[in-house]
Specification:
The protein is α+β, with helices and mostly antiparallel strands. It has helices at about 40-45, 60-70, 75-80, 135-155, and strands spanning about 80-85, 90-95, 100-105, 110-115, 120-125, 130, 165-175, 180-190, 200-205, 210-215, 225-230, 235, 240-245, 250-260.
């Protein structure tokens, strides 16, 4: 898969929605055992090619590894196959994590995108007809990949803390909107993507090592966040912890994980039976 994150742009879902354009480089629900060393955890969660380890804080890297383990661990994450979810009530996505196939169905428009996010091949249905013009098709498939990049980041961000181009910094402790204490992990980006000046801060519960809040900064030079959202209501899906149906009613919802899905779901415009 592509390895460079493409930070946030705006998508036309609502005036309040900020679109997060990060390309995945996919590389527990319990706390890390006291006997684990930072080196052992890092080996269990290797970074993507291009992760800025040299300029990242060792403490921040250890936090990213503990988050991965708390979310179920790298093995469970790598084993995950098919995931579907609803995004802001606007569209439904189905992702074959092992092959890069993605299906996107728009709820209030006559549009379906079937795209391979690795090579941008696929098919598009729009306004009661299949798109066949090569230039238009390429444009729509690119749009589909960008939508997947955005919508999947809202669901899988904690698994992407050691992506290509990411620099991690330990930003100390702070209080979340809930009043609970948190350790803060800062993400900046090293010359990658269309808006490399973006920055995130991820708020981590020091007891269970799960992310419970994230903040978006349009520029790393800002003193205050452009937006802050909860990251809560965790559930376990085949050994992986995911946050959906969140308390602010935004982002991903109706998440399902499958071991098997028919190829027709990624090849035919007909409604897949799993929805």
């Amino acid at each position: 898969m592509p390895s460079k994150p493409l930070p946030i742009q705006k998508l036309l879902i609502s005036s309040l929605l900020l679109s997060i354009l990060f390309i995945f480089s996919f590389s527990s629900c319990s706390e890390r055992a006291e006997t684990d060393t930072e080196e052992t955890v890092s080996v269990a969660n290797p970074p993507a090619d291009g992760f800025n380890e040299a300029e990242s804080d060792p403490k921040a890297i250890a936090m990213a590894d503990s988050i991965m383990e708390a979310m179920g661990g790298r093995k469970a994450w790598d084993s995950l196959r098919f995931v579907s979810w609803d995004f802001f009530g606007a569209r439904k996505l189905l992702w074959d994590k092992q092959t890069g196939r993605v299906r996107i169905d728009f709820k209030n428009a006559d549009r379906t995108y079937l795209v391979d996010i690795d090579d941008l091949t696929g098919k598009v249905w729009e306004d009661s007809m299949e798109i066949t013009n090569p230039d238009t098709l390429r444009d729509r498939l690119t749009m589909a990949r960008n939508i997947w990049i955005n919508d999947s980041y809202w669901l899988f961000m904690p698994f992407k803390l050691k992506d290509s181009g990411v620099t991690l910094t330990y930003a100390g402790t702070d209080t979340m909107m809930t009043g609970e204490p948190a350790e803060v992990l800062q993400l900046t980006f090293n010359g990658v993507g269309v808006t490399p000046d973006n920055m995130y801060k991820v708020y981590v519960n020091p007891q269970d090592h799960l992310v419970y809040q994230w903040a978006y900064y349009q520029s790393a030079q800002q003193d205050s966040a452009s937006a802050i959202w909860p990251w809560d209501n965790y559930r376990e899906y085949q050994g992986v912890m995911l946050s959906a149906d969140r308390s602010d009613k935004r982002g991903p919802g109706d998440v399902h994980v499958y071991e098997q899905v028919s190829d027709k779901a990624f090849e035919s415009f007909d409604d897949p039976e799993i929805y």
